[in-house]
Amino acid sequence: MLRIVIPSLTGKILTNVDSCPVPYRLLVVSGGFLGECRHFGVEKCGEGLIVMLDSDIILSKECWKILLGTERGEFSIGVVNVFGATSHVSTRVFAIHFEDYLKVGGFDCNIKYTFEDGDFYYRAVASGLRCRGVSSKYFRHIDHKPRSFSGSFKVFYNVEAAKMLVKYKRAYYSNLWSFFGLRSNLKSARVTVIKGLALLYYLMKQL
To answer: How far apart are CA 122 and CA 100, in angstroms?
Structure first.
């Protein structure tokens, strides 16, 4: 039977899981950071094809078709646009067989705030798995009241984003635009400065 894993900070699920065309077992995981929630959820499944979804996604029939068509030796992962300028992978929608997940080594539970999906993608490709991109035209994010985050969370988030930027510099430099999110308004200018300082802080720690 298909296993569906949904990490959720609140336990509330908005995703249209009931539109899945095949029998499934649903596992909702909460109580930790995204990387460890995803990893714990997959480990609990233990076998077979595993579909992982965000808790606020609407999937089309075509999206389900792509995810359920994932075979051994490959993985399917969402591809989303950032500010209309770049594209990056996202585990908003994701499918992989349990044995292939173990081959990659799973999600890095030490990644607490961001880019656990990109980190998994680069390691999966390096391990020999074939990537099947799922276009964001086949799924969409549900608009809802955004969560509020503390100032310290935002700082740690951007430091970790800077860390990932440095770690995957050859593959990730093309996403500098998405990292800094350059747009012409004052709020974005402040965010850009904060991210620049976060990157500088991480680089100085490596010296």
So the answer is: 14
For the chain, domain boundaries: 2-141, 151-205
Instruction: Spell out the residues 6+ positions from residue 17 whose beta carbon is closer than 8 angstroms to its own.
Output: 4, 6, 24, 26, 53
Beta strands 86-97 and 130-135, pairing class: unpaired
Of residues 88 and 91, which shows the higher confidence score? 91
CATH of 2-141 among 3.40.50.2000, 1.20.82.10, 3.90.550.10, 3.40.50.80:
3.90.550.10
Q: Give me the residues paired with residue 148 across strands.
A: none
Q: pLDDT value at position 173? A: 43
- Starting at the earlier edge strand, list the strands of the sheet with 86-97: 24-29, 2-7, 49-53, 86-97, 74-82, 130-135
Position 11, amino acid = G
Residue 181's pLDDT is what? 47
Local confidence band at 30 (pLDDT 50, 70, 90 cut-offs): confident
Of 40, 57, 47, 10, give the one whose Cα is nearest residue 25. Answer: 47
Whether residue 25 has pLDDT greater than 80: yes
Cα–Cα distance, 117 to 125 (Å, whole number) = 12
- Separation of alpha carbons 79 and 12, rounded Å: 24
Q: Which two tokens stand for residue 74?
A: 């490959």
Tabulate helix, strand, coil % of the chain (nearest 5).
45, 25, 30
